[in-house]
């Protein structure tokens, strides 16, 4: 073979090899979905339901790994530094939009360090208390916390968590500062509420519905405009005596920045399939939530929504003067 022919053959082999590599089907191995909170919490519950269904569609297992701490920023930072190959995903809630204002120094950019895949669900929140809390309804709850503000303890899942944001808005709305007890995740906070170590908290229906229905905690209201189908007898806070108080916790799915568009698109398609999965819809309904509409479960919808949520929360957090290092 002449030198020219040998060279041409080598180039052909390289091109063929590159093409074959580019066409390698995704995924070919297990995918990890990072949840930046402790196991057993509401975001963890949502993630595990979605991960199982997406894995079925992608024909690869998606394992959920809990990387809690610092209001979700430790898990977020880990994903931001991960290889952008589609094998590390990140499911986070509203905290992705509040972290840029809450934390003075973030080791990542909430928008630029990630590739959005799509919105997942909007979760209502509930005001709940230990089973033997003296107030029988929300009106009595308001009166009690104002009269006992130095004694009442409000639990949350840590700075930047949904329960922290809900509590911050609540204290602002009633113009009363309460003693807050932060935890590393909603699961531990709920355990102490069940055990009577703390008085009350604001938490997502995905974490409270079964406890409410089991009579293990008291419920005083939901934070949505209308009542929640899974808790039809629980009034909205607007009905209960706190007009205009509304908080919904949205969840979004992300990949590290630089993840190839075909991979992101394939993940978005799998997410959309998961949100149509009857088992997921049924379990979501039992937990007091529902999947977002298909036109919100895509990269552009999440990108636009995240930017709008950052703009929405920034002035509220700055006004409250709540920051974390």
From TrEMBL:
The keyword Secreted does not apply. Gene3D superfamilies: Bordetella uptake gene, domain 1 (3.40.190.150), Periplasmic binding protein-like II (3.40.190.10). Keywords: Signal. InterPro entries: BUG, Bug_dom1. Residues 1-22 form the signal peptide. Belongs to the UPF0065 (bug) family. This is Tripartite tricarboxylate transporter substrate binding protein BugD.
